[in-house]
Amino acid sequence: MEDSNKKQLVTTLTEKEYAEVFTTYREKANEHAVMYDMAKPVCQSFQGKPIDFLSIGPANGIVEDNFMKRNGLRLRSYHAVEPNNFFREELKTTISEWSNEIKCTIEPHYFTPNYPLEKKFDLVLICQSLYAMPDKLGVIKKAHSLLKKGGKLMIFHQSKEVVTNQFIKTYLVSNQINDENVPLNAYELSDMLKAIDMPNTIQEELILVDVDDYLRNKKAEDANHVMELLIQVRIEELNTSLRSELRRVMENVCVVNSNGKYEFHYHQAMIVVE
Ligand SMILES: C[S@@+](CC[C@H](N)C(=O)[O-])C[C@H]1O[C@@H](n2cnc3c(N)ncnc32)[C@H](O)[C@@H]1O
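Above: the input entities. Below: the C-alpha cells describing the complete assembly.
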C-alpha cells in the first residue's frame, strides 16, 4: 500500500528532511498553540468521557498529546495513520508516556478515499495533513464515514492560499512535474462539503511564523526550514531565479515585529463536521 501511494506526494524533501523542517516549523510558528485553543470547545464537548480517536497524519502526536493535557480530552483508544517512518518513531515515544489503558494502534500507510478501516470513532482529526492528498474531498468523505453516530470530524487547514503555493506551482512547471494535487483552501473545502450535504462550521485564526533567520540570510542550520516546509522543496534545489524570487516575495509580505524580527502571517482554519 505504501509504495503505490507514494506517487501522490509531490515533494523533493525526503521523509527525514520533512521531519526535520517540521520540527523547526513547530518551534518558529505559534500555529500549534492556536490550534489547541481553537479545538478546546470540541474536546470539552465529550465531557471527560474516554473516546475512540483517529488521527490521520499525526506526525509525532504532539497535537493529540496537547488535546489531552491542555484541553482535557480523554482517550479510550487511539488509532493513527502515519506514513512517515521518522514521525512514527517519535509518535511511539509520545504514546509511551500515555496511560496503558489507552489502546493504541499505528498504521504505517497513506490514508486514501478507499482506506480500509472497519472501526468507528468519536473524533477523527485531519490536522494539517490534507496538503499532500490529491483527492481532498474523497479523503474527507471517507474520514466522515468512520464516525460513530454523534461523532465529530475536525480538520485544520490553511484558510487562504499562502503566497508560497505559487512557488510550488512554478517549481513543478519548471521541473515538468505533472501535479494532480490542486491546492484548495479551507473555505473552498467547507463550501464543497456543504454542497454535498455535509453541514460544517469553520473558523479562522491568524498564524505568526518567525522567518528572521531566512530573510536575514543567517548561517543557522535551520534558517531555511520554515520556507522549505511551506514550499516542500529544499531551497538548494531551486534554480537561482526561483530562489531570489522567493526571497523577494517574502520580503514584501513579511512584517517586522516589535522584537525587530521578520514575521510571516497567514490564516489557519478549523472545520468541524458532525
Ligand atoms: C504538516 S504535518 C502535520 C502533522 C501533525 N498533524 C501536526 O499538525 O503536528 C503533515 C503530516 O501528514 C502526514 N501525511 C501526509 N500524507 C498523508 C496521508 N495520505 N495519510 C496520512 N498522513 C499523511 C505526514 O507524514 C505528516 O506527518
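Note for the figure: The domain at 2-161+182-208+267-273 is CATH 3.40.50.150 (Rossmann fold).
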